[in-house]
Amino acid sequence: MINLKTVLRTRLLACCLGLVIPVFANADDTEIYFARANAANEQNTPKANVLIMLDTSGSMRNCRAGSGSSWCTDIENRRITLLHEAMKQIIADAPNTVEIGFGRLRGSSGGQILLPVMPVNDLTRPYFLNALNSINGGQNSAYPSRNAQPSGSTPTALAFDDMADYMLGRRNRTGVSYSNSGKVCVSNAPDEEVCRDVVQTDIVQVDSCDTSDPACNASYVWNTVPSCNLNESTCRLTSYRRVDWCDTDLPNCYRERYWWSWRYYEADYQQRSTIYELTVQTTVQVCETVEGGCDEERAVVNGSNFVSPVNTANQCESNHIILFTDGSPSGDDPEDVGLVHCGRNSYECQVRIASELNSNGNSLNTPIKTHNIGLYMGDSTLANMKAVSAAGGGETYDSDSAETLLEAFQETLDLIDEDARSISAPGVAVNAMNRFQHLDQLYYSVFQPFESSYWNGNLKRYQVVDGEIHGQNGYAVDPATGYFRTGSQSMWSSMIDGPDVTKGGAREQVGTRNLFYTTTAGGALQKLNWASSSVPSNAQLGLGGSATSAQRTALLNELESMWGDPLHSVPVMVNYGEDAENNYVFVSTNGGMLHAIKTEDGSEAFAFMPNEILQKANLYTTSRPALRVDNTRQTYGLDGSWVAWRKGGNNSLSAPEAVYLYGGMRRGGRSYYALNVTDPTAPSMLWQVNNGSTGMSGLGQTWSTPTLTSVPDGSGSKVPILVVGGGYSPTDHDDSASLSAADQMGNMVYFLNAETGEVLWSAGGRNEATENVANMKWAVPSSIAVVDIDFDGVADHMYFGDLAGQVFRITIKDNGEHVVDRIANLGGSGSARRRFYEAPAVGLVKASTGNELYVVIGSGYRAHPLDETVTDGVFVIRDRTALRGSGSQTLATTVNMTNVTSGGQPLSTSRGWYYTFGETGEKALASPVIFNGRILFTTYAPTVDQEYDNPCAVRYGRAYLHTVNLVTALPAALSDDLPAPASRSQALEQSTPAPTPTLLVDDEGRVITIVGTEVVGEGSLGDPRLRKRRWMQLPPDEANVIRQTQVSSDSEGEGESQGETDGQ
Prior knowledge:
Keywords: Calcium, Fimbrium, Fimbrium biogenesis, Metal-binding, Signal. Helices cover 10% and strands 31% of the residues. It is mainly β. A hairpin with a 2-residue loop joins strand 20 (456-465) and strand 21.
């Protein structure tokens, strides 16, 4: 049993940075994964510039008590000492995203910049310490000189004006006060190894060489030999040899009498030999290390103007001035301020300066915030400081000790640092919308946002064990993050994969991929031969005619292993008979593929890529484009959800007679595909339709997840159909807050023959429609809710909304002449510009006046979840005429429906009821579900305690679950076993849009409610007579049997169901 207290929190880390322009710039619901700064701008790096103005007035010589400029003899408790020590600690611990500069008071003439705003590092810390020493001349003496710093008055407004001039890069009024020609080296270039070629000359002996060559030198050497032929020029006889001793009795022994040395008179033969020496020059590389030197300097002034530290091209940069003082202004003449016009009141002048700096209208068009930190402030002075900080968008702190002064600076810099930081690299994210459960198995489609139009994805399997999510090595979820813990291992993985999207799962199991593709729309599937050098052709793969074999190989290698992101595609599982575990999961991705995964081991049976994607395969593999300048993706693939028609076999364990899959592309294109996957290893094309098909020119982007049902064919039989909305019109709704006169595409509903794809009937505001409906002027991207009143497998009514806030009903007629009625108009302009992206849920209510259908639909700008301009809500429309077969009813509007936002119950005579959501920007982004007389649906609010002003911070939001009584509109518990809550909504842990609530039945017959990754409650099954918006072929004698089908629906429509309630 699932532990109801277990919350599997998923916090989607965002990638990247987003553009600072109105919310309508990001034409996609992926804007929740991005900040507003431009991800492609290399200038955009998290950074804060902070100029700290230090009070160096004479009162800083005092301790807590004291006045004037007399020195306190207690060195440690002097105010300047407290400041000195606090600033040394700040400089020691400064975060690397915060750059700091120092300013100071300058007598009564204003302020002075001591140090430019610069990084705090090993190179610059000595400058900071020297500057601090310079303003604390008496730090080592109990009785410093009267001329030592600090000294002077407190001209706060004038000094603030000088600080502002520096930050804005205005004229230099009061000069600088440090050495090194006004420049500080803040970064050294790395030492560089410099190498050069040197010619080296060597003389080597050789056996012989050409003596005519200048490099060849021949020399002679005479060596003593026993004998040689004196007739040869190389032989000579030299003088007698001298020896140490010889026998004088011998005739050739002679002793020189003068030196008494012996000489042996024997001929000394010498033979000449030639030595050849060759002069050889070789080039050798000689390397040495050269110091890099300074590669970045910071200056305070350039000529007569300050050098502003503000980089207006960096959208992720924030700018701040911190004013520190120990008392009220003195010696101040605000009339001398140049930035704004001031009177004589210092604080009023400071408020004006702070307000000017904090506006986009200053000379840099970049806000600069002002903060105040005081020491020993009185109440009135502190109140004035708070007024300055409020005008400057900053904070105010007071301190009364060394510790609290340090804390004040640290808290201020912590806030600034937090404002400077951003999630500048993508984080691992699980898409909570893409999760489903089968038996005790959990399957998660996961993806990783990235600063690119291509994101990595995966499908992973886990298991429910005693109410917890387990992998192979036990508990898989990190309770601190709500995502998979670092050491966890999912069920199919051979390694620890944890939160890493690129490890384990189905992605790891891909071997030699069985990739099937088409080369024409609706053409036969072909299996790709990875070894072929020509099929498909380079042109069919999106490669140019000049592509090399290496480029083709690189593309195919990536195509063989890639796994894109399943951003909106929800997995669907089909059982193939024999046993409950013979299942395959089908899920498609923005890599342009549909994947068929064997649930037993995660192996891939096949992948399918249609011609529309194949012909630009290079964009999904080797030439992946970056994000656009507004952080929108340039490429999508098969981003729609699929549904399966499993034609049942002889019994529940039999193999199906046939299995067909149907799915669209969402933002990837304008096609629907039908595949025959009866053999999950050998798929075939059933049919394909697009906006070029007969009767479908109005088809937009195929957002509408198909709904399978059947309708009468006019001759007493029924025909299986696929019903889809006309789709999405991006030109009309991506970037516009206003309503067009009529959308360019998508304002249709199509009935397609499920086996042939032929348009059997259509309705809409276009000439091609079988039933032309004048009010159908706007796109229908949602799925269609189908109502089967008598459970005979044939649709009786269908409901859908459009992007103008209208709701329509299709009444199915036996003769095929179906009727379309507009039953509600709930949109408008401005804050009432409501859109219905998701399908409604429909409930049957038995009332004393007759049975009625209650149509529940929520509004929300799905393409822009961060939009805050519209007041969205949930609307419950009473359809009194659908079941009576005749009669007319007044169009439901917010005027004739009961507004229960503030409480109360709907009037019995009203056309229904509604309430608007309480949080700013709160909207419904998933379909509702009706269960046991209750409506369950989720909403998303884009901002919850977030720093909206920081363009580089991802705006995490908050998801909510609403549980409301269908008839009374009162807050409802999840089951009859629980007391009704005080509120209709409860906050979820999820910080991104939550999906439709999922209702699971455990072995004990209890209904467990799961929203995304959170188990939110349970209740008894009872007799809800709940039928999902899905269909499978049943024999006539089983048509009224409510049974769990093998067909899985998409998350956007999972709650589009028909319920029956007693109206309580």
